[in-house]
Design a protein that fits this description.
The complex is a heterodimer of chains A (about 550) and B (about 525). Chain A is mostly helical. Chain A has one domain. Chain A has 23 helices and six strands. The two termini of chain A are about 45 Å apart. The relative contact order of chain B is 0.10. In chain B, a hairpin with a 2-residue loop joins strand 1 and strand 2. The longest helix of chain B has about 30 residues. Chain B has 22 helices and three strands. Chain B is globular, with a radius of gyration of 22 Å. The chains are: A mainly alpha (about 550), B mainly alpha (about 525). Chains A and B meet through strand 1, helix 7, helix 8 and helix 9 of A and helix 18, helix 19, helix 21 and helix 22 of B.
């Protein structure tokens, strides 16, 4: 069995096991499988280390579409119609895959005190859903067949809906339904794009077969010897096959009278932008975060939001470069507005968790801006920002959870002096929030700086790039503003009597916080060794492909 | 007509004879302790399934006057009898003992009507079979429970149904007037409606006939504006029979529509195209919007049934023109969808049947609040059916919607209305997002809301089996849809005695490639 299949379905296997083991052991099984999944996923690094010397040369191949650990099999077939079970990793998905298994494991450990939750019924169902959620998330990152991707994308919604809806806070029903409907609205547009892309690729391949006079099919864009005779859901093929690319991005290809590439780009973009989320599609996020239990918030912030960014990079940009060019300005504006508006909203919050939620909106704005400008540094920075935020924000949510477990409220203004009361917790909190702030030497810094560099670098292409970069840079000040103010109000100051007897972070809590703190520092100090070496090859090749297609059509 | 020809109608005869036996068993067994009517009815349906399997796929047999046994017959037999068996399970304990014999017999008669509709190749036979489907349902609603509302909805359904039957008959007579024959498709030689209509511009007589038929059948399939009865009738009838009402008349109506559209060769004048387009768009939108504001689950599912009719009309409008494959052939998508819809809808109603609050059957959202805590397995079954109705993976409802909307997208640019059809599919996709809101409210009520009025288990095991089979089928058909989809596809291949425009219906994908390059894609 392929290692990716193993990684994706190990948590599901754990969920099956949770169904039968005695109730007290359910959480043990869950943690065991989350750990196993994490360890197995680490083995993917093996192929990287093997070719470490010439990583950029051989590992990422010479064009976008070099994959590793590929598994393909037909799933649903019909006449002139095939949906494949197609998994694979490249520099884009590998880091996100590892991030998912890591955050999954830590969030699973964070669920260990389930018995002490306010709603502690149904431990079995909770961990089953948790593990199914992990399977769904891993599936999204490794599926390279659009249909399979879409299925995992949707399936992942169900456990999330129940996890928020059943084990959430007082307004959980509202939050869960809002989360579900927002995402569903986005995926409906994605479904339209899915079907349209299939039939447009079908007609592209047909015309190519007629033009080339090869009734046996046309050659695949990246697989040696493979022939295409009908439309495809293969995300790499859709991006790299010249026949499909020419048809998709040509100005003469229209859908309902509107040019195909920009329209499909927008359909997909809205679907992913809701998940990212960026203004104006972000309103579900604060509600979902506030109501979700702590481990679910960690997953939501650490992994689910990354799917939006991953979707941009996997679908929107490589498949519809012409659309990317048309919308670049709009996307950059949305990105900058998200950065500033998210930060301002965060500043206005008095609820601890809501503040962290809005800070996510702000941080994800950098991802969108970095992608929108289409420069090497922009792409790299966006990717780094996703990974960095995937570590710092679950940490922040867990930090909120730790204090909520003790104080049972999240009012920022009622806290104070917690560093004195809980020194170990206070230290961790400082690392986590400073990483989120983007302090040099911690992980948040690299992503933001790379995005800003990338935006400036785009000045030669886009006249609007400089003002955008300046506005985005001013967002850094706002971020510093709300985080420093937060730290002052919660952790500094005189010790409050109300919280005097609180125990410091327990061994379990410390065990969850330390890996994230270490990674916050490691990513900030060694960005090449921890992230860039694994991602940049694929991203640069993808950018070359995008620029090449834009050059051809314009 | 020889005996050999009659054996081709094995499943139909089994239902007919079985219905008579059930009537007798029901009448004599009223005093006995064991109630035999339901088990006998189930055995009859299972035997009919066995007969269908043994007979295999009929190859266009016309030795029985008025009937034409095609792969469509075969497909409809399978899905009708399969879902029919589930309907009997859902209704196992339904009416009081003294009436159960008649009740089960009526279900069997109605199923028989559907099977014959699939074979009918004569306008008069088509009318009779449609009525054979409908008339038992009037009785079933009245018998289903001891309630003034059931009697009221039965009468309401009967009067409106009778009117629609009259409109249908009037329309069929116009077609007869235009064609000079009641035969729908020419098999071999002779006059037929299809032969009259094909090739030439459609005469105004035939067009009037078509319009009246569409109006009459729009009532059966519950399309706007002939949907007004749906909510009242669904609410009045007992839940398990409502599950059947959502499937049986709809299937029969759509088969009849397919036959009429096929006779017209899917080449309709522009005005007619836009009529169906508007009806489909309005049906989906009205159904979903009205469902959104309901508090009563049965009324909600009634309007959802209207909305699903709208989706099916999209596939009907596409027709088999684009040919090939599950995502291209609209009629195959429609036949696939109606089977999926029948199962998931029945599952939802079976879940309602399985519970009661006090002495009353559960009906409103408040009645099922917090159901998951009390009956986790039944709640899971209901949730699966709700997600399937929503069209959410990993359930078959998703594939059904995908095939329907995919078929609309597959119309190539050579089709005169391809943009309009794609726009309709987009309206449909948006509608299914609206629909998600109220299906999700059902799920949310059973899982998230606190328990205010806990429902207690009502009927016995069979209805639970029905729910289990329906929900598991939705999951299995998602993972392995190819068998059902390919059967639906072969059913549509045989819609035309002499395929005129469908030269591209080749089963073998390689065959198309062996021909000259211009024939690569028949849809474009």
């Amino acid at each position: 069995m392929n290692i990716l299949t193993l990684i994706v379905f190990l948590p599901a296997l754990g969920a099956l096991l949770c169904l039968v083991v005695p109730r007290p052991h359910v959480r043990t099984v869950a943690v065991l499988f989350a750990t196993l999944t994490f360890l197995v996923s680490l083995s993917l690094f093996g192929s990287f280390f093997g070719g470490a010397e010439n990583a950029a040369g051989s590992f990422f191949g010479s064009s976008y579409g070099t994959l590793h650990n590929v598994e393909r099999a037909d799933w649903i077939t019909g006449q002139r119609f095939a949906i494949e079970y197609f998994l694979g990793v490249d520099g884009l998905s590998l880091p996100l895959l590892i991030l998912t298994t890591l955050v999954g494991l830590l969030a699973c450990l964070a669920s260990w005190n389930f018995d002490q939750w306010k709603i502690n019924k149904g431990i079995r169902a909770y961990f089953i859903l948790f593990l199914l959620l992990e399977t769904g998330m891993l599936g999204v990152f490794v599926s390279l067949d659009f249909f399979l991707f879409y299925i995992f994308w949707e399936v992942m919604l169900l456990p999330m809906y129940f996890l928020i809806g059943v084990w959430g806070g007082p307004r959980r029903e509202y939050a869960a339904i809002k989360f579900f409907l927002f995402t569903l609205a986005g995926s409906v547009l994605m479904l339209v794009a899915l079907v349209a892309m299939y039939f447009y690729s079908d007609s592209a391949i047909n015309s190519a077969m007629i033009a080339q006079g090869t009734p046996g099919g046309i050659e695949s864009g990246y697989r040696d010897g493979a022939m295409l005779t009908h439309g495809t859901f293969d995300l790499i093929e859709l991006a790299v096959n010249p026949a499909i690319q020419n048809h998709f991005n040509a100005a003469s290809t229209v859908f309902l009278g509107i040019r195909f590439a920009p329209l499909m780009f927008m359909f997909l973009f809205i679907g992913f932008a809701i998940k990212l989320p960026c203004v104006p599609f972000h309103t579900w996020l604060p509600d979902a975060h506030v109501e979700a239990p702590t481990p679910i918030s960690m997953i939501l912030a650490g992994v689910l939001l990354k799917m939006g960014g991953y979707g941009f990079l996997r679908l929107c940009y490589p498949i519809f470069p012409a659309g990317a060019l048309d919308w670049a300005f709009v996307l950059a504006v949305i990105g900058v507005v998200s950065i500033l508006y998210g930060a301002l909203c965060a500043m206005a919050q008095t609820d601890f968790k809501k503040l962290v939620a809005y800070s996510s909106v702000s941080h994800m704005g950098y991802v969108l801006l970095g992608i929108a400008v289409m420069t090497e540094a922009g792409f790299q920075g966006a990717m780094f920002q996703m990974i960095a935020h995937g570590i710092s924000s679950p940490m922040c949510f867990f930090l909120v959870g730790v204090i909520y477990d003790r104080a049972h409220h999240r009012e920022i203004n009622r806290f104070g002096g917690l560093w004195l009361t809980m020194p170990r917790y206070g230290t961790m909190a400082t690392i986590g929030f400073f990483a989120s702030l983007g302090l040099p030497g911690l992980c948040g810094f690299i992503g933001e700086v790379w995005v800003l560099l990338g935006t400036f670098a785009a000045g030669s292409k886009f006249t609007w790039a400089y003002p955008m970069a300046i506005l985005a840079a001013s967002g850094v000040i706002l971020t510093a503003g709300y985080i420093l103010w937060l730290i002052r109000r919660v952790y500094l100051g005189r010790e409050k009597e109300e919280y005097a007897g609180y125990s410091d972070a327990s061994a379990r809590e410390t065990f969850i916080l330390v890996p994230m703190a270490v990674l916050c520092i490691a990513l900030g100090v060694l960005p090449m060794q921890t992230v860039f070496n694994y991602t940049n090859g694929t991203l640069d090749l993808m950018l070359q492909h995008i620029v090449g297609v834009i050059g051809m059509v314009s | 007509m020889t005996l050999d020809a009659l054996t081709q109608l094995g499943p139909e005869f089994m239902l007919l004879i079985g219905a008579c036996i059930v009537l007798i068993v029901g009448a004599t067994a009223a005093s006995q302790r064991v109630q035999w009517a339901s088990p006998v009815a189930l055995v009859v349906v299972l035997l009919a399934i066995l007969a269908t399997w043994r007979l295999g796929v009929p190859e266009g047999d016309t030795s029985i006057p008025g009937l034409w046994l095609t792969p469509l017959t075969y497909y409809v037999r399978w899905i009708t009898l399969g879902i029919g068996a589930l309907v009997i399970l859902a209704n196992w304990h339904q009416p009081s003992e003294s009436e159960r014999g008649e009740y089960m017999a009526m279900i069997l008669f109605s199923l028989l009507g559907v099977l014959l509709t699939a074979s009918a190749n004569d306008l008069v036979v088509l009318f009779f079979t449609i009525e054979l489907v409908s008339i038992p349902t009037y009785v079933l609603i009245a018998l289903s429970r001891q309630d003034a509302r059931a009697a009221e909805s039965s009468v309401k359904y009967f009067f409106l149904g009778a009117m629609s039957a009259a409109i249908l008959a009037y329309g069929l007579s116009f077609l007869y007037g235009a064609a000079g024959t009641t035969t729908i498709q020419t098999v071999g030689s002779g006059l037929s409606v299809a032969g009259h209509v094909t090739g030439a511009p459609v005469s105004s007589t035939a067009l009037v006939g078509w319009l009246l038929i569409f109006a009459g059948l729009a009532f059966k399939v519950a399309a706007v504006p002939l949907h007004v009865y749906v909510a009242d009738v669904y609410e009045g009838a007992a839940s398990p029979i409502t599950g059947m009402l959502g499937f049986v008349p709809k299937l029969a109506g759509f088969i009849a529509l397919i036959k009429i559209f096929a006779a017209f060769d899917w080449t309709l004048p522009q005005s007619v195209f836009w009529l169906v387009w508007i009806v489909a768009a309005v049906t989906m939108t009205v159904g979903n919007t009205l469902a959104l504001i309901q508090r009563n689950v049965k009324r909600m599912l009634a309007y959802s049934s209207v909305a699903h009719t709208g989706y099916m009309l999209v596939a009907l409008l596409v027709g088999p023109v684009a040919g090939e494959g599950p995502m291209r052939d609209g009629v195959a998508a429609l036949l696939f969808y109606v089977a999926i819809y029948g199962t998931m809808n029945l599952g939802a109603f079976a879940a309602l049947t399985a519970f009661k609050t006090g002495q009353r059957a559960v009906e409103t959202l408040d009645d099922i609040a917090g159901l998951a805590a009390r009956a986790p397995i039944a709640a899971l079954g209901l949730a699966v059916c709700a997600f399937s109705l929503m069209g959410f993976p990993p359930t078959a409802g998703f594939l059904g919607k995908l095939y329907v909307f995919g078929s609309a997208f597959s119309l190539g640019e050579s089709h005169p209305f391809h943009q309009a059809v794609i726009a309709l599919a987009i309206i449909g996709v948006i509608n299914s997002a609206i629909g998600a809101a109220y299906y999700l409210r059902i799920v949310s009520t059973i899982y998230v809301r606190a328990e205010d009025a806990p429902a207690a288990p009502a009927s016995g095991r069979p209805v639970r089996w029905c729910l289990a089979v329906c929900s598991i089928a939705m999951l299995i058909l998602f993972a392995w849809p190819s068998q059902l989809a390919s059967q639906a596809r072969s059913a549509t291949v045989a819609l035309h005695a002499t395929p005129t425009r469908y030269h591209a219906v080749s089963e073998d994908p390689d065959a198309a490639n062996d021909t000259s390059p211009d024939d690569f894609d028949p849809g474009h």
